[in-house]
Amino acid sequence: MKGLFTTRPMIIGLAARNLRRYLRRTLITTVGIALGTALSLFSMGLGDGGHNQMIENGVRIGQGHLTVQPKGYLQSPSPSLFIRNPGPILSALKSNPGVREVFPRIRGEGILATAAGSEGILFQGVDPNLKAEGAIFKRSMKEGAFLDSTGRHNLVIGEKLAKRLNLKVGKKAVLTAQDAGGEITSVLLRVKGIFQTGSSSIDGAVCLLPLGILQKTLGMGKGVTSLAIYLSNPYQQNAVFRELDKMLPDGPDVLLPWQKLQPQMRDFVIIDNVFGYLTYGIVLFIVSIGVLNTVLMSVMERKREIGILAALGMENGAILRMILLETTFLTLLGIGGGLILGLGVNWYFSVHGLDLRSFSSESWNLAGTVVDPIMYSQLRPHRILQLCLAVLGLTLTMGIYPAWKASHIEPVEAMEKP
Fold it and tell me: Which of 3, 15, 121, 417 has the highest CB neighbour count under 10 A?
């Protein structure tokens, strides 16, 4: 008899039978686990998707997932610090399979003046011949058109800056800046287009010029201040960074990730992730309390039955395993239901997105970048696995006490009539 109650099939059968006996309670607890899992999956997918969209917009407006720039330029930007011969570095970067695009750029500060006044601006020289360059600005054009490859002295500016300087498409403005030799230089430009990204800091200060015009104006020859690198898979950033860092020759230039160049966006993502994990933890803790209550009530109601099993020779360890198996089956059923519901909801929002245009029809300015008003869910497989293991681990931890209590029931006391 003792051997019968310690066999694995017998313990599994008893655990499954006990869940069927209290079917209503089992279903209620399973639904609770499923809803908690699905809610966590939905929040996780939408949070990750929002972060990825924000980061992608940020690196598009900024200097890429990775950036090559002169040493010391980050601490003290100066037109005298620039990559004098970007050709060999550009070829080395493009040879890496993890690199999707590389854009040569010139960034700096200057003064844009018109008859209506003058404003301090941030200018960026881009190559109009590269189709994917300036994607954020191209899609945000409100008037006129983006820069072309004709080599004309054109510029595109933000809507807020255009209003302050009373600039329209076709009007002229003078850009004054310090050149590579430290001298003050000026160039006459014509407004070709006006963009509206939704970011007040960008729309009120940024101007884009053809790279060739800016190289000539600043006396840089073929030089640039940075090479913006965009990756095929942003999740492989660390691996690609290590590979490119080894490929690049030792010299006056350095490779930097976007986290170094855009610390405000990096800190926002970190803090938001922390709050996200706290939310998931609270939801899962509430779910696990429900599991604890269900299993503990089940043990108390079956105290006499467990005492009889112990009197018939069932060992304490076998009783403990039986209760833990009940908790495991209950949790797995809930996780299965949560996966079906949560993945279904995430699929819908990954295709159609969460439309927040009722709050604002424009992009939002956040952490130095823009956030699109339609957020798409992005849920990676390892994140799903992490959540499922967390639910299983937490509920099993909560099931240890009822299992321990059941395994220490004294047969004589349990079988006494009340």
Answer: 121
Cα–chain center distance at 26: 36
Cβ-defined contacts of 256-259 (< 8 Å, 24+)? 256/66, 256/67, 256/68, 256/69, 256/74, 257/65, 257/66, 257/67, 258/55, 258/58, 258/59, 258/62, 258/63, 258/64, 258/65, 258/66, 258/67
Residues 379, 340: Cα–Cα separation, whole Å: 14
Q: What is the pLDDT of residues 363-378, one digit of tens each?
A: 666 666 777 778 899 9
d(CA 335, CA 197): 41
- Compute the distance between CA of residue 148 and CA of residue 132 in angstroms, rounded to an integer: 13
Whole-number Å distance between alpha carbons of 12 and 363: 55
pTM: 0.80
Pick left, alpha or beta for residue 148 (phi over 0 → left; psi -120 to 50 → alpha; otherwise beta): beta
HEC states along 342-404?
Answer: HHHHHHHHHHCCEECCCCCCCCEEECCEEECCEECCCCCHHHHHHHHHHHHHHHHHHHHHHHH
Query: Are 208 and 126 contacting, i.e. CB atoms less than 8 angstroms apart?
Result: yes
Give the tokens for residue 348.
């819908």
| Radius of gyration for the chain, computed over Cα atoms and rounded to the nearest angstrom | 31
The pLDDT tens digits for 301-320 are 777 777 777 777 777 788 88
Place of tokens 């499923």: 34
